[in-house]
Amino acid sequence: MQRDEETKKRRDEVKNAHTLPSSSTSSLRLSVSSSLAFLVCIALLLAFATTSWHAWLHKCATYDEPLHLVGAWLQTHDADFRCNPEDPPLWKYYLALGTRRGDLQLDRQSGQWIAMLHVIDAQQWYVTNALYQTPGNDADALIRSARDRMLLLGVLVGALTAWWAWRWRGPVAAVVAAAAFCFDPNFLAHAPLIKNDVIICLLFLALMAAVWLSGERATLLRCAAIALIVGAALATKFSGVLAIPILALALLARALLPAAWPVLGWTARTTAQRLAASAAIFAAAVVVSYVAIWACYGFRFNTAAGQPADLDDVAQICIVAQGQLDHGAPVDATESQMRQWAGETPTPPIVRFTLWAAAHHLLPQAWLRGLLYTYGTMICRRAFLCGQVRLTGWWYYFPLAMAVKTPLATLIALALALWAGLAFRRHGGRTPMQSWPIIAAVLAPALYMLMALRSHQNVGIRHVLVVYPFLFIFLGVVAADAWRRWGKPALWIIAILVLGLSVETYSAYPDFLPFFNVAAGGYRGGAKILGDSNIDWGQDLPALADWQRRHPDKQLYLCYFGAPDPRYYGIHYVCLPGGFAPPDQLPMSGRPRVLAFSVTALQGEYYPAQLRATYETFVRQTPIAILGGSIYLYEGK
């Protein structure tokens, strides 16, 4: 009897060894789904990187890239900050990683070299000459190498977006957020570029992730991350200054939440205790940021070793811009009018403060110089919208830009997600700590967008890229909730939207920069709506060079908007008025003429009224070819 019971017991043990309990089966399914979601996210990010890299492989530098590249070289190898002070240096150190001083030949004795310390506009001529007109410099190779490094940071934005969505709502949310990012044409366009627009996006996303985690439990590591990220933002782009008020509001919101807050091993239970903890974290971030700014300039006040720079030129830019704003200056105001208005305009407070800070060496001179220049361009700057050119922009510029530059599938998904999110909210309340992730995810994009609406720097959707990852996280979170509530119907809607998004985006390949959604009419319709970096940043000279090689019987007349020298690509041309290209020595001939215009020239954003009127006549004609969405070719007379 006892032997039979032992035999039965051993038989049951063997059976149980091959049969998992229900809880283990559920865990296994969750593990498999999580692993699959992780692999899908990795695949999406790899596809994003490959697509973005290849799309830019045969395009030249955009207008700003040569400036940033040369500025990065000088600050890294010479500790000289005279070039490109309007962009703080931290991200440019990363840009120059692995480079050698001799890889780029620079003239450090020319008049333009000296002039950059006193006239900020001299830098554009210097960098064009350095990259494209100096023997031994391979501009395209240098640009491509730097773009490879920048693309990695773009991939990190997508990875952090997916991580945030996963931590909030699980693997489904991560996959949807990753898909929304990886199929977004604006990030495919801007991720590899030698610019700080995507990097500041990464920093704000990382900052709010650190704030979110610290609001749950403030450890030393999380608090240190907040301080370092704020410092990095201030040393990367001047819009990073917004990190200070955003952090202050986020910490205040956490302090006012009626929930205990673990802070460095101590629990803040009362509002007063939480306010004290918030103040301490904020103060630490400000102190670290101040030190970080000085560290990025080598703890040196002068712009160059032993050579201070003038702030008078950038201060005057701010005063002239303020005078234009105060007098409602038309876009075609004369120089004498602008000088008169500037003489009647009191010095703006921020200019007085910056000059005072420079006089007392409170911050590095190059940082202050860049801050003033950036402020001046935000007060007044030429901008194009729907056929109009203004100096002070439009408050609705960025909402309209987002409406036409965002794929239709993403816009539809956002509308459905907003409706579904409101429906879910009606079915149940939230505890204070359940509201905290929402606060952390909403504060940064809301405040950033509010400041963008007030800015007059209406030159590209790139200035509000910070908002997009938070929208993608929102899509992922709502998609995960919808799947849990509605099952297969929700899955089908998600699949259809992702498919539609991928088709619309990839139909624009490789021209992601001039992408406009179907409702806006693609880049042909977009040319009537937005200008500058939304569509034409001078990126298509290689396409023009290829066209000229295939049409040697044509005489090319060129009006080009961009920093690269067309002659570097073997393009020969006769200059049309208003173009940014240097004169070519091409003789006149009796060959049939073809006129090539950058879209910016046809829009007239940077041209006087008479020239705008002349070039607008071509807008009503049918071009014989459109190259990359940014260069229009017309038969000449």
If you had to describe this structure to a student in words, what would you say it looks like?
The protein has helices at 2-17, 22-55, 65-77, 90-95, 111-115, 122-132, 139-169, 171-182, 185-190, 197-216, 220-234, 243-256, 271-296, 312-326, 335-344, 349-359, 365-379, 397-405, 408-426, 432-454, 467-486, 488-506, 522-526, 541-550, 599-603, 609-619; strands at 261-263, 266-268, 383-385, 388-390, 555-559, 574-575, 593-598, 625-627, 631-635. The chain has 637 residues and is mainly alpha-helical. Strands 6-5-7-9-8 form a 5-stranded mixed β-sheet. It has a two-stranded antiparallel sheet with strand order 1-2. It has a two-stranded antiparallel sheet with strand order 3-4. It is globular. It starts with a helix and ends with a strand. The relative contact order is 0.10. Residues 9-23 have low confidence and may be disordered.
Q: Output the strand order for the largest sheet.
A: 6-5-7-9-8
Largest sheet: 5 strands, mixed
SSE-based structural type: mainly alpha
**Radius of gyration over all CA atoms, rounded:** 28 Å
Uncertain residue segments: 9-23
Notable traits:
single chain, mainly alpha, two-stranded antiparallel ribbon, 60% helix, globular
Task: Annotate the secondary structure layout.
Blueprint: H1 2-17, H2 22-55, H3 65-77, H4 90-95, H5 111-115, H6 122-132, H7 139-169, H8 171-182, H9 185-190, H10 197-216, H11 220-234, H12 243-256, E1 261-263, E2 266-268, H13 271-296, H14 312-326, H15 335-344, H16 349-359, H17 365-379, E3 383-385, E4 388-390, H18 397-405, H19 408-426, H20 432-454, H21 467-486, H22 488-506, H23 522-526, H24 541-550, E5 555-559, E6 574-575, E7 593-598, H25 599-603, H26 609-619, E8 625-627, E9 631-635
Parallel strand pairs: 5-6, 5-7
Antiparallel strand pairs: 1-2, 3-4, 7-9, 8-9
